[in-house]
Amino acid sequence: MTWCAICLRKERGFGFSPRMTGTRNLQDAHFCSMRCLNLYTALFRKGGGMIDMTDFERAAIYSCLKPLGECVAEIGVDKPLSSYSKEQVLTLIEVIVTAWQDAMRKGSPEIPF
Ligand SMILES: [Zn+2]
User: Fold this and answer.
1) Is the dihedral of CA 44, 40, 48, 113 positive or negative?
2) For a FRET experiment, which of 27, 30, 40, 53 has its CA 20 to 30 Å from that of 15?
3) What's the CA angle centered on 84, arms 79 and 89, to 5 degrees?
């Protein structure tokens, strides 16, 4: 199974080949949507790629802190992570991934659509 290079959902037939631009040291990338493909190509054109985080990507990660804190507060701040149930861990992961995807899909002046 192949995953979207932006949001890590299952790819759905959208792709980008750096070889088409003369770049030979990067692999083809796959995407779930035109929105994620456009974001990736904007990052690629700016030379940002996905290796070194841009300010936008760092801000997207930062935006996960509040939902993460709210989820942990709901579970119980005194409860150690090692005592979380499987469902609580999965909920925490879903909250963080959803917050990150939402932030990435908003785009930024750094990455114009
Ligand atoms: Zn995607």
Assistant:
1) positive
2) 53
3) 125
The Å distance, Cα 16 to ligand 1 centre, comes to 13
Residue 82 pLDDT greater than 70, yes or no? yes
What is the per-residue pLDDT across 24-44, written as a single tens digit (0 to 9) for each?
666 788 999 999 998 888 877
Evaluate whether 68 touches 92 at the Cβ level (below 8 Å).
yes
Question: How many Cα neighbours within 13 Å face the side chain of 51?
Answer: 6
User: Does the pTM exceed 0.85?
Assistant: no
User: Domain coordinates of the chain in residue numbers?
Assistant: 1-51, 53-113
| Residue 70 CA to ligand 1 centre (angstroms) | 25
Rounded to the nearest angstrom, the distance between the alpha carbon of 87 and the centre of ligand 1 is 25
CA of 65 to the centre of ligand 1 (A): 21
Q: Among positive and negative, which fits the CA dihedral 102, 105, 108, 111?
A: positive
**Residue 6 pLDDT class (50, 70, 90 cuts):** confident
